[in-house]
Amino acid sequence: MWRKYSDSETKPYPALAVYLAATHHGRARTVLRSTTPEGDDVFGVRDTGPLEIGTDVWPLDFSIAKDGAEGRWEGDEFVMTGPGWTGLVADLLGPWRPEERSDSGAVPEGEPRHLGPFALAYLEALVRIADWRASSGPSADLRPGEVRNCR
Fold first, then answer.
1. Are 88 and 18 in contact (CB under 8 A)?
2. In the prediction, which pLDDT does 65 show?
3. Is it the case that residue 129 has pLDDT exceeding 50?
4. Global pTM value
5. How far is Cα 95 from Cα 104, in angstroms, rounded to an integer?
6. Which long-range contacts (CB under 8 A, 24 or more apart) does 140-148 make?
7. What is the three-class DSSP state of 58?
8. Is 93 in contact with 75 (CB distance < 8 Å)?
9. Which residues of the chain form beta strands (DSSP E)?
10. Looking at CB atoms within 10 Å, which of 6, 54, 86, 94 has the fewest?
11. Cβ-contact 70, 9 below 8 angstroms
12. Average pLDDT over residues 10-15
């Protein structure tokens, strides 16, 4: 959903739906964590020092690319041309203080923004509860193309 959302000029889904789907499926993390048994990585990327290709030495810096930000390299600097995942979450959360302005441009005008952490957590809980309810009575007896008469 994020890729389609970030690649489309006319957004196919609301930003809030993209966020809720990602958090529900465990794709949005607020902490860095290890994914290997050794615990010496961040999401599978190990700190092995700079990348050496022939005589060239390239320092590894994932600080911008981690969140899906769009951009290009100009010399030694990454120039963002579009907001990434962090921008989407920042727009949905809103500023920490009401007098501050928070707008990364990831959430289009007219969509929900500045919801705050408690409203976002509430919406995440609703999605989780809806999934539990749907999973408690799955329609295993349906085959593709069949329609059940619901009463």
1. yes
2. 41
3. yes
4. 0.59
5. 11
6. none
7. strand
8. no
9. 41-42, 45-46, 51-53, 56-58, 70-74, 77-82
10. 54
11. no
12. 87
